[in-house]
């Protein structure tokens, strides 16, 4: 018969429990793992509206994506601040992290792709007009990376807090705008028109910026920090392109060419997004090298 010892709560403890190496068991007066992470709120935030088993997958997929996007924005805001202060080392680490977050989001589509067309059809009537197109965090990511579109603020007029965040993001320099200003501060010739651009407009390729990046790539030893920054940005956009491609292929696999729940053209709209280039000069210069 195993030996029993009293615990702080008065309950007996078997000797075998000592194998837990003194791990704390009583959290009546201490913060637990669940307390720290707010698991009570997170794990009770899934409320399927349909009787279909597969709706839980749909909800968890999108909720976890929003959590990853929250982290992306946390990192990207910090990247922009570091670029503004010429503090590049931490910006490099954060950009690498954001690219890996995008990889995580790419692979998340693998899970959603296990949902078949009949399974999605069973839950679609319960989604109403809700759509990922309405994700204000995703829109802010697009804005902070330079893909600006003021008209899309209209989607959020009924959500004042989200509207305020996006309006601010629309009018602020993107991460790429800050990278271009950094080129100029390092003595590379960037046109005054590009440096004084209207930040609320989408990024447009500029010949002076392309030539500045070309100089960096032709002498990476001299401009090593800028060279590394450029490659981090290319890594990030590449990961973003994979995410967009995986998105459209997953949607086509599940709903074909039906109109999206939010009213977009669905697959045809998403295919147009594949042509969006966030950092145009960094891709154009490869042909010129």
UniProtKB/TrEMBL annotation:
Keywords: Dioxygenase, Heme, Iron, Metal-binding, Oxidoreductase, Tryptophan catabolism. Its EC number is 1.13.11.11. GO terms for molecular function: L-tryptophan 2,3-dioxygenase activity. Heme-dependent dioxygenase that catalyzes the oxidative cleavage of the L-tryptophan (L-Trp) pyrrole ring and converts L-tryptophan to N-formyl-L-kynurenine. Catalyzes the oxidative cleavage of the indole moiety. Signal peptide: none annotated. Belongs to the tryptophan 2,3-dioxygenase family. Homotetramer. It comes from the Bacteria. NCBIfam families: trp_2_3_diox. The keyword Translocase does not apply. It comes from Duganella aceris. Binds 1 heme group per subunit. It is an enzyme of class 1 (oxidoreductase). Its cofactor is heme. Heme binds at residue 247. It catalyses: L-tryptophan + O2 = N-formyl-L-kynurenine. The keyword Methyltransferase does not apply. This is Tryptophan 2,3-dioxygenase. Pathway: Amino-acid degradation; L-tryptophan degradation via kynurenine pathway; L-kynurenine from L-tryptophan: step 1/2.
